[in-house]
Amino acid sequence: MRRDRIQRACGWILAVLLAAGRSQAEDPAPKQPRAASPETARVAAPEPAKPTPGQDPIYVPPAIYVPPELGAPLGRLGGGGTRGTGRKATLQILAPDHLGLTLDEGPSLYWFLAEATDTRMDFVLRDGHSVEPLLELQLPTPTTAGIHALRLSDHGVKLASNENYQWFVSLVPDPQRRSKDFVVGAWIRRSDSTPALRSRLAAAPSAQAPLLYAESGVWYDSLASLSAQIDANPGDATLRARRAALLQQVGLSEVAAFDRADGKTP
Known about the structure:
The chain is α+β, with helices and mostly antiparallel strands. It contains 7 helices and 8 strands. Strand 4 and strand 5 (135-139) form a beta hairpin.
């Protein structure tokens, strides 16, 4: 009887071992991590960081000029063509058709001549109360076609803050008969910079100065800073296109076309 119990016990143990072996053999292999599909991978991949104006030296948005709200209906004087020397010489002043602002006490002032000329040219600056001009001089001739500038600080002139001035460029075909002069002119006021603008200019790359001045309504400094960049990189068509866009905004289409043609009169 005892031997029967031992045999039954051994048989039970053997049956358990065999059952355990079958169960292990039938279990599937451990699951491997599932690879992400291309679609899932694209969704999960982080989006590349977009360049920001303050970090990327290449990205410079266009300068959008916002005219200041001054309530002063002071616009450009003259513009167009004259035949004082027997051929057309188009002279335009690079200023908005309203009172333009500068933060500079001795700013640069710009004008455009469509054709080269050997006709005498004069520059005059007046304030609102003096009888005599603050500055009156004869410009060097012959004068080439294109955009020209005169910096007031080079002639010892300092604009007073919040005072209006008028400046003129003239073609003088006959110095003895000044009624034949062809004159263009514009208004300028030196304004005080705001802390916000000073802070933005200090934090931004120099390439963005024209944009910041234009957004703040400071026409003369926007044009001057952009023109300085062009002078430093005369072959840069992108800079000329930016200046053309700025000039177009104040109605100077012919000068804008000159810049888009890389400095060649179309």
